[in-house]
Design a protein that fits this description.
The structure is a homodimer. By secondary structure, chain A is of the alpha/beta class. Chain A has 24 helices and 31 strands. Chain A has a seven-stranded mixed beta sheet, sandwiched between helices.
């Protein structure tokens, strides 16, 4: 597990060190040396006495002990080397070599041996099959580029070494600084979740970086990821992540309605929502979000755009509005006062255009007005490029100076990365980032602003009868869809309103029930599976006489054992479903019913257990949310009751993990009530849950 | 207007030429010289006899005549200079100077004088207030960067000089080559549409560039843009454009339903659809699309991804699927055969992962298999970066060689722009482009693939009674919403099915009508405006007896002049609306009715007149198209009839331009019929159409 010897080793052995920097063992040593590693370095190389100026020893037996060993030797040689070094007292290992579990069964066995040796000595292990670990203390990676480093820079944790390298390529051009880069490779001991856990458990708000970027290929331990990501965010960190593979499971077979809607990507979506992680889908997006994270936090949605070129300001305005952000009009005496200090023809209505001839002093003025005077501005975006006539050093210095002290974020958009290459480089060298494309920035911002805060992990027990839920579940013997009366009982135990229904073989009782609840009613035959096909469902029965006729007719249907009757309700159709996802637990989906779910795929997902805040966030992120609110000419539905049912259902699932799939479809909703009309629940108790996949 | 002296001047005068390259007059001369302009150069400078080695003359009177003059002198001095030079025989002008119509009224007057002088001498004028014109013949711009030039490169036409410069910045890093860059500035004589018109009218398929990128701030002449853009595309060109300002008009006041939905951006959307222009929203997107345009045209949607790094391949697969593109599984004997030739552990299922250790020969093999053997592959994407151990020259050479001969497009994704900077530069120098971010590429591709082909500009007259339409329109005296019987008559004249209805003050006639069409019927009072509020609308009247009662009751409503009765129809609600947009003509909108239009804003737009192909493309680009097709458990509606009504309506509008706003809402649709149930039409004949805005 992660220890100080891994993070800040006093001494490092490079096993397989080489003078050839085109080999991993040569490149990692070069990086350590170029990175001015301050501790003691040793090399292990059977043929040399010195490698790149570092004293070399022929074998791991000969080399003095050290805190950390980085291995760049064939996979087959790694277990022995690790065992020898661990016995010597080496407490941390980075194994760059490939050829382990990712390739063959034999490789997996080698990996096991290494893991056992490392664990037995309480040592840390990164890899195998990775580019290594890079931080401000030591550059134990064989790869390039080495990004600019800063203790307040980004912590990047990646499942894939190559992707980490390519993320760095994308980051370097933007000037993004890093505190550490973790490539966990096969994660034989330390995975993405473990790194995050360590950062959370040892978090020092004064010393530690507040920005984490993740690239994840598979989430091995969703609970752990959720716990530590949300905890870090609550401590003031900002986390963005790519989870690759969002489309792969579209073709998965599914036995129910919910199953077809809930891809495993819903589980990721739900997890990220609950944790408060900003989800990204490309390296470009991830690094742009990372750059935004380096700026002061946004306190609102109102932007001023300051520029000396019209076009990009207009495109940026378009993109911000599309993302739900505002570019409020600036007018009145204050705006006039500012305008009077700019060149004639300048515009201050927002975008503020100081004209191509505008001076650095004009830029300074505009930023000052936006910071101190205009109270409807939360952040400033400055677009300043050049056709090459003048140099931009002075202009960018104004940005630099204002960014030192300004409490509102200032976003530098410097498009002339070629023509003003020297000026942009100088600006970045002062520790700033650059957003070369204004629309890419606006898109990233809207992702950040629209990401929910991490959810409180509350479980709502009020009105949920857990012992009764357990009694019902425990009484069920067979796997599969459970009978309607048990579905009803489970929902009622969770305090979810269910339409009243009555099953009987006695006509008088059926009629009495209908009289009591009032007409119209719905009658259904009990017994046959495909009721509609045999004429076993009749809606909207308005009279006792009609019900009498239908009762007699239905009891004649082959297989009929009884008749069920329930009041015919009206309202807007809603939908709630849930699916148990291996390792994630229950993913709850909600939406408007019918075509909204089936055709428009307008569902949002949350990870049980769900609190009220999350339930509201799920409902409000539906595209069709306005229908729930009510629109011109149409009344809305009771959002509070909808949220309550989502919360109650998630609590039910929490205590009935045997439920693998379920849906309530429809829930009928009016302004007053939301009530379950039909529901299906599939239980699985007896099988190994692995068979699910 | 555009002439050879502008495009290929034998001689150029730089008026205001300077030794100071930080001034426009110095920078443009430097660019001409650096660009190895082969013609005769003259400078005009009152103080020098030679500027940057070019012979200088004190005034425009003194300088010899030339084909082209580029002016970089104060605005006030321009008209005289232009007049003098035009009289001398100069046939083309580029005016870089600002301070004209874009700033003041006086400036506009100067601009007018210039325009008059230029027109009087049949000369061409670019600007004023622009960066100039750059092509393979002469670099008459004052700006940087100068992109790599090639006769088959991109033609960029921009409303904004600064934006053109920033687009070039974004293009240069991708290796995109240009044939010409036009900055039209104030477009006193030549605007974006004129440049496009010239390119269309003089198009030489052998010699001319096939790629046009546009940045447009306002469309001065939509018809001209449509005509020439679609014509060029039909000739084999590919056009992408940014129209900035898509959000500004959201707040426009509108008196009708359609008015509220149709922003002026619908008109742009409709125009681009009709022309076949790929719409982009950022510089990054425009230049990425431009790069795609340089590759062979895609013939299908199936991609193979070849890489030596897993992560980016997965992200790319996700992004392609999201955009409706496929990464089909490769399997069977052919896949096994390929796999056997790669290193153990390589994957060929697609993405094809040749492993980090994979060789250039492996890449070549994979590309060859994808080109010649796998018949379910239309294009290849190659993701090859490096952590810096080996150089990539050989790998990129394989790409280069295959791209020379391969008929399927190969998309090079080279993420290591820093670490493999030299290799990427070498690859670009061979005339290739680079897509540094795989997801940005996938997004651009999906825009291109999903853009419609240019529409045939047919007008469907079959069954449209144009003389009758004109008689009805001509008979209308007052502006405003026209009465229902005229609405019905207009729709019927266009061959649009309208629900039968009958108005009478005689109960017997009403009853006879209802008996003939069949119950149930709808009855509405005629006279009162807000019928529902006074109880003047009754739906679903099922018996003669009931209709009798309602007739008597309605005739008692104050203001009642008659009763209208129509059959009560059932079906899926559709919506068609239209709005006259200044300069664009009629924008037609279609969608599913009700919440789909009002809440989900799920409408698509087309520009009248519309042919069948366009009508189908509008219908099929609805998010809710599956409802029209029919989904599990729900029948679809007659798409052919829906398309027919769109076409017929657009023809009606073509011959009734006095219709400023209208909607048919609802159109009721079943599998068999689509029929208009209610419609409103607003006519405006008597006002200046400018008042609309």
């Amino acid at each position: 597990m992660i220890n100080q010897q891994l993070l800040r080793p006093e001494s490092i052995i490079v096993v397989g060190a080489s003078n050839n920097i085109h080999k991993p063992g040569g490149a990692i040593l070069r990086n350590l040396l170029n990175g001015h590693y301050a501790g003691q370095l040793y090399a292990v190389n059977p043929k040399e006495t010195e490698v790149q100026g570092v004293k070399a020893y022929p074998t791991v037996q000969d080399v003095p002990t050290a805190d950390l060993a980085a291995l760049a030797i064939p996979a087959a040689a790694c277990p022995d080397a690790v065992e020898t070094l661990a016995e010597k007292g080496v407490k941390a290992f980075i194994i760059l070599s490939a050829g382990f579990g990712e390739e063959t069964h034999e490789g997996a066995l080698l990996e096991d041996r290494i893991r056992q040796a490392v664990d037995a000595h309480d040592a840390a292990l990164i890899g195998p099959n990775c580019i290594g670990l890079l931080n401000t203390w030591h550059h134990s990676v064989f790869s390039q580029p080495i990004p600019p480093l800063h203790p307040q820079g980004v912590d990047l944790i990646s499942s894939s070494g190559a992707t980490a390298v390519f993320i760095l390529e994308s980051a370097v051009s933007k000037g993004l600084q890093f505190n550490s880069v973790w490539s966990v490779g096969n994660a034989a001991q330390i995975g993405v979740e473990d790194v995050l856990a360590y950062m959370d458990e040892h978090f020092d708000p004064e010393q530690d970086s507040h920005i984490k970027l993740l690239y994840i290929e598979s989430i091995a331990d969703p609970d752990r990821l959720l716990l530590h990501a949300s905890s870090l965010i609550r401590k003031g960190c900002r986390i963005a992540a790519i989870k690759a593979g969002s489309s792969e499971s579209g073709s998965r077979a599914a036995s129910s309605h919910t199953g077809a809607i809930a891809s495993s990507d819903s589980a990721v979506e739900a997890l990220f929502r609950k944790a408060g992680i900003v989800r990204c889908f490309s390296r470009e997006e991830l690094t742009t979000v990372g750059c935004v994270f380096t700026l002061p936090e946004l306190r609102g949605r109102n932007f001023a755009i300051v520029t000396h070129a019209g076009g990009p300001g207009v495109m940026l305005t378009d993109a911000l509005s599309k993302g739900g952000l505002n570019v409020p009009k600036l007018e009145g005496p204050l705006a006039d006062e500012l305008k009077a200090q700019l060149y004639p023809g300048a515009a201050v209505g927002n975008p503020i255009d100081i004209l191509a001839t505008g001076t650095p002093e004009h830029l300074r003025l505009c930023l000052e007005y936006c910071e101190e005077r205009f109270d409807n501005i939360d952040a400033m975006m400055a677009i300043f490029g050049t056709p090459g006539l003048v140099q931009m050093f002075e202009m960018y210095n104004v940005l630099h100076e204002r960014m030192q002290t300004c409490r509102k974020p200032i976003f530098p958009i410097l498009p002339s990365v070629n023509t003003a290459g020297a000026e942009v480089a100088d600006f970045l060298a002062k520790g700033h980032v650059n957003f070369a494309d204004e629309v890419t920035l606006a898109t990233a911002l809207s992702r950040i602003v629209n990401a929910p805060r991490p959810a409180a992990n509350e479980i709502e027990l009020f009105g949920v009868d857990v012992p009764r839920i357990r009694r019902i579940i425990d009484s069920i013997q067979d796997d599969g869809y459970i009978p309607p009366y048990q579905v009803q009982a489970l929902l009622r135990s969770a305090g979810i309103p269910v339409v009243e229904e009555f099953v009987s073989i006695k006509k008088d009782e059926i009629l009495a029930f209908a009289r009591r609840t009032g007409f119209p009613v719905v009658a259904k035959v009990v017994g046959p599976v495909h009721k509609s096909d045999v004429g076993g469902v009749v809606l909207n029965i308005k009279t006792e006489q009609h019900l009498r006729l239908e009762f007699d007719r239905m009891m004649q249907i082959p297989g009929a054992t009884a008749v069920m009757v329930q009041p015919m309700l009206k309202g807007t159709e809603l939908f709630i479903g849930a699916k148990y996802e291996e390792k994630f637990g229950h993913v709850v989906l909600c939406g408007l019913g019918g075509i909204f779910v089936e055709v428009l795929k307008d569902v949002s997902s949350g990870l049980a257990p769900l609190g009220y805040e999350e339930a509201y966030s799920m409902i409000r992120s539906l595209r069709a949310y306005k229908i729930i609110q009510g629109t011109r000419g149409q009344r809305g539905v009771n959002e509070d009751k909808f949220a309550e049912i989502i919360v109650r259902l998630s609590t039910l699932l929490r205590f009935a993990t045997e439920i693998k799939e379920m849906d309530i479809n429809p829930l009928l909703a009016t302004e007053k009530h939301v009530i379950a009309v039909d529901a299906r629940i599939r239980i699985e108790k007896n099988r190994d849950s692995d068979e699910e996949n």
